[in-house]
Amino acid sequence: MNSAVDTFARDRLPAAADLPEFVFDLPELEALQGPVRLNAATELLDARVAAGQGARTCLIGGDGRRWTYAQVQQQVNRIANLLVLELRLIPGQRVLLRGANSPMLAMAFLAVIKAGGIAVGTMPLLRARELKGIIEKAQVNLALCDARLAAELEAAAVGTPSLTRVMLFNDVTASPLEQAAARQSDQFTACDSAADDICLMAFTSGTTGQPKAAMHFHRDVIAACRCWPAHVLRASPDDIFIGSPPLAFTFGLGGLLCFPMAIGAATVLLEKATPDVLLAAVQQHRATVMFTAPTSYRAMAAQVPKFDLASLRKCVSAGEALPAATRQLWKDATGITIIDGIGSTELFHIFVSADELQARGGATGVPVPGYRACLLDDHGKEVPRGTVGRLAIRGPTGCKYLDDDRQKTYVQNGWNLTGDAYLIDADGQYVYQARTDDMIISGGYNIAGPEVESALLLHPAVAECGVIGQDDEQRGQIIKAIVVLRPGHTGDAAMTAALQDFVKQTIAPYKYPRAIEYRDSLPRTETGKLQRFRLRQG
Ligand code: 3UK
Asked: How far is the CA of 149 from the centre of ligand 1 (A)?
């Protein structure tokens, strides 16, 4: 029996034939299959307190304010009571969450899920227009919003009849959500949800087209906690997690909230986590496990000597490919081998990765325990070893778009096709090539932009770069590099010749960039991804 009274989301799950095949390949996943009851918030929070560990630190704000598991439980219960008793939340309804990372935002996520609602996270930088698209697509019923980000939401709420109630939190003076929650009881009985009730809608950070909402069940969140974190990250309850990805991005929701909570660890939630702020916060909070994007590691490496980072022991990179040069810079600066992992909004978190011992420059790693991977050709057949193919994944989690024809593109024959081109090398490691639609065809050769980027990044004058195919009458496309130079270097003809020579000596010469353009910065998404389509637009 599903607990959703409002069946909007459940009714818009993909047809059974379009769902990925779910596999529960580990003993610890078996209990999540079938008609079982499970509430992800109860599992992450109440189980910890019930085990007598309520006094452990759970959440730490950027201001240093600490919340124990017991305190988080009480506040989550108050917010859940407020949602149900005053805001009239019905199980299955969608609650939009908006704010920079903070303990209050984290507790709002947990409260919505505990009450049987569906949490719809939104990136802090979204403007009214984009928020409106999300509100309409998800038919959002109510919203909990950081007071400092209220303006765009209020503008978006005009003319969206489904959204009837907005409540603000984190206000400097009188914060309505906190005040209303304070009037509520700190006891709350969680919604008796089914393991396959929907608890999250994660809008893809996709850079083009209409937004897609990837839906996740309660069991998806718990399954993810039992795969990559338990088998690859292997953090301990005494770890202190920290990082930059927003909780609205499943990289952040998992890495900075669900995964630490699943083991009773603490997590520092920073409103701002630019490279200098993040390093200072690691020092201040004695953080031990860090999550951020490749470009952030590259930007931080130079600043490492200014901080005491002795506490740091594990560093995770995801969101886009980790260039070997960036891995090496971070290793030289800190002595730490980055744990790279590829994940996606559709699969909730990381499915191919390597721990510190397996990690190898230029490779992402191997399938995470609990997941199966293979590389397919255009006909859905497995490609021979050493050949580039389309990455296909099966596991306990998988793509379930809300009412979207693109389900048939992401899921084929039960496999999740992530849209990435990979090859498996002689050691069995998965080596990232490019997004399948970003492969460049030049003079009859298939060339992966990220490989050329990795080569350029090895040059000491290069701070950042992006490589694209530019249409060319003779060759179909030519390789073009857009380069941001480090301070003190000039983008002149001599630099262009030097960079071209450097690439020719580093990788196969036919892959060198025939055109190089210099810029001050590159267009990136809020999740740290290079927007190649914007580079192509010129
Ligand atoms: C790319 C990577 C190479 C790849 C994400 C970890 O990035 C996440 O989710 P998105 O939906 O994007 C998914 C796509 O991003 N990508 C991500 N990580 C890597 N490419 N190496 C990597 N390590 O194209 C993938 O298909 O925004 C990452 C955890 C949760 C996530 N949602």
From this structure: 27
As a 3-state breakdown, the chain gives helix, strand, coil percent values, each rounded to 5, of 35, 25, 40
User: What is the pLDDT at residue 537?
Assistant: 86
Which of 465, 364, 467, 470 has the alpha carbon at shortest distance from 424? 364
Mutate to test the pocket of ligand 1, among 203, 215, 249, 342 (most ligand atoms within 8 A of CB): 342
Query: Whose Cα sits closest to atom 10 in ligand 1?
Result: 344
Residue 205's pLDDT is 58
> How high is the mean pLDDT in each 10-residue block of the chain (538 residues)?
93 98 97 96 97 98 97 98 98 98 98 98 94 96 97 95 95 90 98 98 76 96 98 98 97 98 98 95 98 96 97 98 97 98 98 97 97 96 96 98 97 98 96 93 90 96 96 91 97 97 95 96 90 88
3-state secondary structure of 393: strand
Determine the distance separating the centroid of ligand 1 and the alpha carbon of 320, expressed in angstroms.
6
Q: What is the pLDDT of residue 369?
A: 98
At 406 the pLDDT is 95
Q: What angle do CA 530, 536, 538 make, to 5 degrees?
A: 105
- Can you list the domains of the chain with their CATH numbers? 443-522 (3.30.300.30)
pLDDT at 527: 83
Q: Say how many C-beta atoms besides its own lie within 10 A of residue 439's C-beta.
A: 16
The CA distances from residue 363 to 255, 321, 390, 434, in Å, are: 21, 9, 16, 12
| Distance from C-alpha of 84 to C-alpha of 416, rounded to nearest angstrom | 36
321 CA → ligand 1 middle, Å: 8
Residue 334 CA to residue 312 CA, distance in Å, equals 9
Q: What pLDDT, on a 0 to 100 scale, did the predictor assign at position 425? A: 95
Give the position, in ligand 1's atom list, of the atom nearest the Cα of 250: 32
Q: Contact, 510 vs 500, CB < 8 A? A: no
The two structure tokens encoding residue 420: 């990435």
Nearest CA to ligand 1 atom 21: 321
205 Cα to the center of ligand 1, angstroms: 10
Residue nearest to ligand 1 atom 2, measured at CA: 320
Ligand 1 geometric centre to CA of 385 (Å): 23
Radius of gyration of the chain (CA): 23
Q: 420 CA to middle of ligand 1, Å?
A: 9
Spatial distance between the Cα atoms of 250 and 203, rounded to a whole number of angstroms: 9
Sign of CA dihedral 506, 511, 517, 520: negative
Phi, psi (deg, nearest 5) at residue 35: -80, 75
Half-sphere exposure of 196 (CA within 13 A, CB side): 15
Q: Whose CA is nearest to atom 22 of ligand 1?
A: 342
Residues with CB under 6 A from ligand 1: 204-205, 249-251, 318-322, 340-345, 349-350, 364, 418-420, 432, 435, 527
- Using the mean position of ligand 1's atoms as its centre, give its distance from the Cα of residue 154 in Å: 31
Q: Could you tell which of 225, 344, 346 is best to mutate to test the pocket of ligand 1, judged by most ligand atoms within 8 Å of the CB?
A: 344
Q: What angle do CA 266, 270, 271 make, to 5 degrees?
A: 150
